[in-house]
Amino acid sequence: MCGIVGAVATRPVAEILLEGLRRLEYRGYDSAGMALCSEGEISRLRRAGKVQALADGLAELPQQGTTGIAHTRWATHGKPTETNAHPHMSGESLAIVHNGIIENYEPLREMLKSQGYIFGSETDTEVVAHLLDHLLKTGITLIEALKQAITQLEGAYALGVIHADQPDQLLAARKGSPLVVGVGIGENFIASDQLALLPVTDRFMFLEEGDIAQITTTQIHIFDRQGTPVERSISQFEHGQAAAEKGEFKHFMLKEIYEQPEVMKRVLEGRISNGHLLEQAWGVTASDVFDRTERVQIVACGTSYHAGMIARYWIESLVGIPCQVEVASEFRYRDVVLSKDTLLITLSQSGETADTLAALREVKERVLASLAICNVPGSSLVRESELALMTNAGPEIGVASTKAFTSQLVALLMTTLILARRKGLDGAKEQQIVKELQALPALIDSLLEMDTAVAKMSEAFAEKHHSLFLGRGSLYPVAMEGALKLKEISYIHAEAYPAGELKHGPLALVDKDMPVVAVAPNNEMLDKLKSNLQEVRARGGELFVFTGCGQSIQNEQGVTTLTLPPVHPLLEPLAYTIPLQLLSYHVAVLKGTDVDQPRNLAKSVTVE
Ligand code: HGA
Hints:
About 35% of the residues lie in helices and about 25% in strands.
């Protein structure tokens, strides 16, 4: 989603803002812009396309500007053109950037038009610029105007505001979209994500819902939604600079796939003692909540939804309590029936996923408690949930999620074990599963050794337009995730089916041009799955099978198999995900698509 960066300093900020945008480009990349304040004037530059197009034109801006805002856009209202790109201005003196959606922009636009304002863009954002200007005309200060303006806005926003008459001030506000304040020495910043500001600071203040910030080079004043001055604590970024850089890897996605052994260690770190999980890691009230949990409702979107679907198999078999899983965009608008003994688990990499957050807010009073499984500690989802388990995957830049997904799976399996304790899982069994979890880094290392073989396999997909992914049991959501990865980054149409459903429809699509990928570990479903694969072969479909040791799916004409090392049954979903990530990556590279920033998509989906 859109990325915002802003700075107020005593040195020129154009390069700082540009570097911030480059680091935020994973969030939105259909257009970019910057506005700088210098000598009592605002100068603005906007370009359709990527941040590089803006960088190419930067010489047109005054290089000595010491206060500025910049934006990389993922359009929601109006095409990705230069005139719709942010910053938006009212007159010559006021500029704003925005992430989110102003839901009541139409009546506001009509009101402002009747006051003589002329709109230059199709965006919802522009109303905020003119509304601020309209309020300023009543003689109030800029900060007062912002306080009043936000009372008139419906929807979601993170805003950065500068004004030519107050060149030493940067204003910010947030509700529903993320925004952090970067605390520097004699200079301060704002950004949608800490990553944008790592070259200039590692100290951050997370704004809360409804907060407004008035920022100068030396002071940061925060006001809550009632306009009352409040303190927000400063936290240190823990992951270090390199976390946000590609290093030796060609793409962030590949780097993040290869980071998974390390990530597996981090998600377990500090949460195990004597082979047992420490339930305080979930929060101070965790023990009481888990004691009273009789059902689980998981809510998530996209890849996180697939993690939730896998967890359902674990929870129902190991804990023996009912578990429902639903995509947040449907759940939030349905008349869901929830009981007071339900633990709500929300999953989101960023913790700012708009639909998941809205679902939490919608039902949190009706459930026992909510647990956020999330990668960003200060995020809204974490702050608004009673319990939280951080996945500690480190920044994920590639739009197609990889390490965030596998770390969510580990967090979900840990949560399953904690709940299973209450239902009689004996200590020795817990210890045995924990041991398997601790062996995950080595297992994933060995799976990554399949890279060359998977790259070879990927050649069969590069010219294809469609593909099917099949799995059974907890490997069905793995097939769904594999299909999602392939469509996200290679733009090949990919569908996942539980293999037993093939004959109820999708088999009609199978022919030599439809590669069929199957995840087929050596488990109790294997014989059933083999029969389903025979149905594919009988129709001339080409099979690509990821399979376990010692079983009878052989390489033959039309059947390519890759064998995975032995895996504990509970960890099969994790293990079989790795080669599917590599497959989609290599197909995308062969097709020459933009792997880290696939068309039409954005990371951290902060709009509905
Ligand atoms: N609604 C604004 C901002 C879009 C956004 O935040 N996307 O993530 C626009 O369309 O420009």
